[in-house]
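During the second year of the project, the team shifted from modelling isolated chains to modelling whole assemblies. The rationale, set out in the original proposal, was that interfaces cannot be judged from single-chain predictions alone. As a representative example for this report, we include one of the complexes processed in the last quarter. Its constituent sequences, exactly as entered into the pipeline, are reproduced here:
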Amino acid sequence: MGDYAAGIVTLLAVNCIAAMGVSLFTGFTGIFTLGHAGYMAIGAYTSAILIIKCGVPWFLAIIAGGFVAMFFAYLIGLPTLKLVGDYYTIASLGLGEAIRLVIENWNSVTRGARGYPGIPRYTTMPVAVVFLVLLAIGMFFIINSNYGRAFKACRDDYVAASLLGFHTSRYRVLSLAISGFYCGVSGALLAGFMSFIQPVMFDMAKSTELVSIVVFGGLGSMSGCLIGTAILTLVIELFRSISQYRMLIYGLVLVMVMVIRPEGIMGANELNSKTVRHMLSRAKVVARDTVARFALIGFIIGLPLSYCFQPSPVSAISLTEYLRYIPSLLFGSIKSGAPLHSSVAPGAASAVLIVCAISAFLTGIAGYIIKQLKKIDDTHAAQRGM
Amino acid sequence: MSSHLELKRVNKSFGGIQAVRDMSFSIPKGEIAGLIGPNGAGKTTIFNLITGVYDVTSGDIEYEGRNINRLKTYQVVALGVARTFQNLRLFAASSVLENVMTAAQYHHKYSFFEAVSHLGRWSKTERIIRDESMELLHRVGLADRADQSAGTLPYGLQRRLEIARALSLKPDLLLLDEPAAGMNAEEVATLNDLIVKIHEDFKLTILLIEHHMDMIMQICHRVVCMNFGAMIASGSPEDIQDHPEVLKAYLGEEE
Amino acid sequence: MGSLIQQIINGLSLGSVYALIAVGYSLVYSVLLFSNFAHGGFLVIGGYICYYALLKGGANIWVASLAALIGSGLSAVAVERMAYKPIRERTSVTLYMLIASMGMSIVIENIFVVTIGGRFRALPPVIPMRTVNILGVASTSASDLLSLAAAVVFLVGLQLFLSKTKWGLAIRAASYNLRIAGLMGVNVNMLISLVFFVAGLLAAIGGIFLSARYSLYPQLGVITTKAFVAAVIGGLGSLPGAVVGSLILGLAEMLAAGFLSSQFRDLIVFGLLIITLIVRPTGLFGKSVGEKV
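Output from the structure prediction step:
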């Protein structure tokens, strides 16, 4: 595996760990946060400082990063998790920014806004993947235990939950502490991956990204959150060649997902044998009904679009060359397009094409599911109407 | 017989509105008591006061002789009180079984470490929770629908599920808020049997709010009738049936 | 003493700009019950319309401002129609609109980045910046006084609109219960469009003054975070709360900058937010949220 691919996998693993933390808090406990980048920052700085200033082995430093972030999450959660709804959301935004500002202004310890350089590159791909696997197992175990049921009960109906004997505010704080731990570890791994950290890496945009990944994957679905992270991280990587459009497309995707399928990719379902079987049994119908149609539309739109999106006239290729390149893209034999592959343009073009195909596919599924959901809604309405 | 639950001159006001006025009644241990009254009389408010959802403005609520005015909801549950809700508060997206398990885990705990690692007591305890929940589902006749999501159950079955969920807390005092609402006569009859049965099997004290008078008459040992937040009558079902104030409260609108 | 008064005036002026933004945000919240994070985008749109009308259109400041106000208001309506309307018609989960609004905020910001670039632009000197001496005790810039005056005018205007006109009454009714207002015969879609138009319009004024005070760039909308904080301190959905919260925030920020260090400005802002919410979980003027069981 090349360095580039290994880098992407590492980054993916790091993002997944943070996303799982946010998924537990937002997806399973139902509290919307805009400040979890702050806990990543705490983890990253703790780990970096411990390694460089105190000579702590990196492995322990990562764990310490997680626990320090967890500790702060707990302290912060005690007074603030009394807040409900958008009040907590804005408060969490303020808290996340406050953490960043403290780091930015505490020059003697954190070296301020210019960043913290010279962190050893301890986060190799195996390290990140092992952490991801262990933490993912832990997370799936938690949600399949009495704690998971308690979190979900507090999310779905906190009055009913408290009348089933749950000390709801304690579970909210616990959930925040666990998610703080995951984000802290993720931040510590990020520090070891980048070898340089800066407060601005953990700003509100990062928090927003975390929470949108979770919503994109499906609130209340841990596997959805992992799939969502994978798709978004890869899409962002694919779009690197047209970086100025990247954020625009990201924003559009966010809006489109909310408009077309707000439940996210997985809804509240986990990816298990049951849902997979269900999906497969529907696949035929879906393929016949919608995907083909949408994929065609996606292809028709995607083709000229991908041609227009060539990054600059210098590296632009002629239309005939470009058309010649498409079959190789579609049928996978990238090598036949080798002479073109060297220029930047086909990278962008293929990115756009792939994304169009993916989005066409997703739109197809979404369209189908919306139809199914409407049917369920109708039967519900009929039942209620009795 | 000692009283299981006793209200002494309980008042509750929301801002300027007096929702409950000088309510006093007591339920002896092991009885089924009915709380009746027109809509808006303050019956559900009484439930909310007992369970700690609201704090009383003045007066005392005593549970087995102990004052529970200031207890939080989860502390009241710890004493052995469970309730159902008039407007159904199931976890609609979760499965029927999971709804009951969420409550049943109250008596079967394991540590966080065991939850994260699935080691130690985890598998044994989870199995106990599951078995207990399934048994309760059998009892209320929902075992064959255990995997269905709770929100898709018909209304009547959702009410039964709420009862199963409350029972899994192993309460001594069960508060049922209109368990028969929206049911037809046949369903009410089977619900009657169910309530009588669980009352015997679990040695419960039951307080229920209900509008189906025949149900009250059949299963309650005593009845409290309230209107406009105050008690207007209490006694045996027969007494209440003919009580002039009660008749006025229910029929008085057609003056 | 002089510097204290000066900082207070600066603080009130900054607070008044926050108020214009916070009131629009709070107005949207009061009707649709979600935090519209795209609100900052409206401000940037207003700023750029004003900039180009002045620079390329050769308009005077009044025409340019008018164009900015209307343009920003209309784009707010368009955002609502495109992104929020399909969601609110399908579900009552406001979280989805919140995420969509974050998406819209990113989209608006990056449309500007992609089309006209991310560089900082100074508004032509149409708003007088000269120093004004106040009764010999303090001096402040004319634009500060102007923004204070403009805020007062528009907020009073909004108050009159909400209390005296038929549509204002409908908006207030909708802020109690949108669904029932709809059942009572209010055209809900029209009403929501109107609310967004007003919110966009107020944001544009804030945008013009902010771009005169600092400079204009696509990320200028980030400053609305502070206006959100102000609205939350005041109590979500409460318009007087939004104004009071904004003034408190503006004052705190300027006093911190003047007497502590400008580095602590933002920290003070967020500290104030957290402390207020711990003491009063629904802000200064917010309705307490109790749930019917």
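The longest strand of chain C covers residues 131-134. The domain at 2-279 of chain C is CATH 1.10.3470 (ABC transporter involved in vitamin B12 uptake, BtuC).
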